[in-house]
């Protein structure tokens, strides 16, 4: 029975044991585990999205702050009030509007507190700087009271309004402006719309915007003027969506020219996309 080979013992020479231990220790000392992948330097989708949003907001900020008008700031605030993603920019825009309104107020501090100055102030800045306009109006009232002045025409005769309407309809805008100013200031919507038309014809675009906003949305003509101004970017920042919105309002109020203007705008927008 050849079972003796199954019981052989393996004997390791002491010298070999020393060498084996040395090799083992040397191997452990020089062993470096495979490096694990650290955080990727490539942007994640979320990071890329955040960067894109920041670039968009910065572009919006530059566009608003680089143009000279105040009303686009107000339009932006109305459009994005409550938008949490734009909270910081909305706050910056609000501060910039306040700064510009105060600059206008300082300019009007040096003007005489007359009705004429007040009318000009209202026409240009009532929409965006109502508090400053009210403060100037208070100065005018105080000046009138201390100087003993009274309103010469507290109420307009029907003929005065008729002159405004007639002169505007025959496009005698120079005389129409004089005839329409007072009824417009007293709240006559048609006269206000006429002032918007007249101001636009004279290329006084901020005033055209201000008068049109006072008459809209009661006046189809004022809505049409606002649509044209937003479409062309005159007196306001160009905005085809707002232009279409005002055209539709004018159509609802029965203005046929607005239908033509809206169709042309939509056709042009469709071509631009293709």
Q: What would you say about this model in short?
A:
The chain is mainly α and 274 residues long.
What does this 3D model show about the protein?
InterPro entries: Sel1-like, Sel1_AlgK, TPR-like_helical_dom_sf. Residues 140-159 are annotated as: Disordered. Pfam families: Sel1. With 274 residues, the protein is mainly α. The protein has two domains: 54-147, no CATH class; 158-273, Serine Threonine Protein Phosphatase 5, Tetratricopeptide repeat. The protein contains 13 helices and no strands. The protein has helices at 14-30, 45-66, 71-80, 87-109, 115-125, 130-147, 158-169, 173-185, 189-201, 205-215, 220-232, 240-252, 256-273. The radius of gyration is 37 Å and the shape is flat. Mean pLDDT is 80; it is low at 1-10, 17-41 and 149-154.
Question: How would you summarize the topology of this molecule?
Answer:
Blueprint: H1 14-30, H2 45-66, H3 71-80, H4 87-109, H5 115-125, H6 130-147, H7 158-169, H8 173-185, H9 189-201, H10 205-215, H11 220-232, H12 240-252, H13 256-273
Helix pairs in contact: 3-4, 5-6, 5-10, 7-8, 7-9, 8-9, 9-10, 10-11, 11-12, 11-13, 12-13
Region (Disordered): 140-159
Protein name: Tetratricopeptide repeat protein
Pfam family, one: Sel1
